[in-house]
Structures are given as C-alpha cells and as structure tokens.
Amino acid sequence: MTTAGPSFPTTVVSNATLSGLFSTGNVLWLNPNNAKATDATYTTSATTNLVPNTYILTCTGFGFSVSGTILGITGVVLGHVTNTGRIADLCVQLLKATAGVGSNYADSQGVGFTGSLTDTTTTYGGSSDLWGTTWASTDINGSGFGIGYQGQTLGGSATLDIDSVTLAVTYSSSGSLFRQSSMAGVGAGGPFFQNPLNDRVRGLVIKERGIILPNRSVRWLPLAC
Questions:
Q1: What string of DSSP letters covers 71-130?
Q2: DSSP conformation class of 30
Q3: Residue 174: predicted pLDDT
Q4: Who contacts 30 (Cβ-Cβ below 8 Å, separation ≥6)?
Q5: Is-contact 108 88, C-beta < 8 A?
Q6: What's the mean pLDDT in 193-210?
Q7: For residues 41 and 119, what is the distance between their CA atoms, to the nearest angstrom?
Q8: CA dist 102 to 163, 166, 173, 221, Å?
Q9: Which fold has domain 2-172?
Q10: CB-based contact 147:115 (threshold 8 Å)
Q11: 208 or 52, which is more confident
Q12: Is residue 138 within a helix (H) or strand (E), and if so which, with residue range?
C-alpha cells in the first residue's frame, strides 16, 4: 500500500453552513488561509456563551493524484486556545465534492479541550479508516475533496487558533497484481511468485496486463501492499 501526503489544502474558507454537515456556525474564522501551512500563523474564531459555535473551516484542494483502491484517510488538525477557556470539536467531517459525507469524527477531547496555550495535534481517521463511507480515486483527486472542522465552547469565552490542517490518503495501486515471494528461486521448479491473496504460483512468468506465460523471462509488476 501507498500513502499520499500529508498534504495541505490550497483553498480554505469560513462557512456558516455546509451541505451534509448538521450544525450552523456563529463565529467567523478570521484569516482562514493561515491554515494552509504549519508556520505558527493562525486562523482564529472567538466563541462565547452567546455565540458558542465556530463557523465551519472548510479545507479543500489538497492536490492528490491517486489510483486504485482507497484504504483509509487520516486528518490532522494543529492548534490551541488563547485563553483559559476550553473548546471541544463540534463537527469533523470529510468532504466529497465540497459536501459533507460519512461519519462525524468530532472528538470531545479535541484541539482546544485542554485549554492549552501551546499547539496540540489531534488526529482523526487512519490508514484503514474510510470514515463511514466509500471512496473512488476520482473523489480523492477532485478539487472538492477535503475536510470541514467546527468547534464549540464548553462554557465562557474561548478563542480557538488553528495553525494547519492536513490530509493523507492510503491506497492500493490498481496495477499491482503479483510480487516476488521470499521463497523465489528456492527449490525445484522455481521461481515463486506471490499474489495479494498469498497464493503461491510456481514456474510462471508475469507479463503486462496480467498475461501469464510459462518458461519466459520475468517482467515484474510492483505490488503496493
């Protein structure tokens, strides 16, 4: 398997609402473009009891170019709060064509929960986690693929500062059919090859486009996982 990224978004905007996300924001993110890189410059949203929810920090345009089967997606948000208040995640959701899809991975112990004045990293999903939905490579490669982040105050005034948001995509290459076994060349009748199902094939040669011919020179096809 192969992992592309982590990559930064090229488009970051502050939305009060977004298709597919259940909640409505109360407070704008100022300078949302500051979430495009880890560089100690921040996009901020100042919540209070009267306006408890941040807008949705909508991050897209990650520039992926993947192929094959999507195995998992990992999101990382880096940030902190600038006072002694605390903020929990309200909505953390992936975007397909700029609309929310799949599971809400809001974490009650998210970026601003501890009230820390120094940056905290929170990771969502993982290399084998599809966030409760299905993905094609075209979804990942599209400019509308991304992640939406929204926080909420846990009481009182609290300003959430986000330094950066990244996504990484783990996938299995579509052209990878066989790999050489650790037993290649051992024993009579070798070499051996191994396919993704761990079936052993002996005395065969793998050519392009999956054509298998006996007793010829080997042309390897890579296996990504």
A1: EEEEEEEEEEESSS--EEEEEEEEEETTEEES-----TT-TTTT--SS-EEEEEEETTB-
A2: B
A3: 59
A4: 43, 44, 45
A5: yes
A6: 39
A7: 11
A8: 25, 18, 23, 34
A9: Jelly Rolls (2.60.120)
A10: no
A11: 52
A12: helix 137-141
